[in-house]
Amino acid sequence: MKKYRVCYILEDRVETENIILDINRNASEVFESLMRRAATSKFLKIRTEKGSDRLDTSLIRYIRVSPLK
């Protein structure tokens, strides 16, 4: 299992979520799948420490994926 931290920088705030994947992917593959999801949908559902949240994809300015150890 691989763990990643995804940081979404929006126009007015920053949201982070931790992703755990069963399959072995590197950070660039995770980033590409997130970009495909953001390009094809109007909202992204993410799980943060505060609970579930819905992000409007038109407000996303930057996405960073980094592996957790």
Features:
two-stranded antiparallel ribbon; about 70 residues; about 20% helix; three-stranded antiparallel beta sheet; alpha+beta
Structure description:
By secondary structure, the chain is α+β, with helices and mostly antiparallel strands. The chain is 20% helix and 55% strand. It has one helix spanning 27-40; strands at residues 2-10, 14-21, 43-48, 51-56, 60-68. Strands 2-1-5 form a 3-stranded antiparallel beta sheet, covered by helices on one side. The mean pLDDT is 92.
SS content category = alpha+beta
Give the overall pLDDT as a whole number: 92
Contiguous runs where pLDDT drops below 50 for at least 5 residues: none
C-alpha end-to-end distance: 11 Å
Overview in brief:
The protein is 20% helix and 55% strand.
Task: Walk me through the topology.
Layout lengths: L1 E9 L3 E8 L5 H14 L2 E6 L2 E6 L3 E9 L1
Antiparallel strand pairs: 1-2, 1-5, 3-4
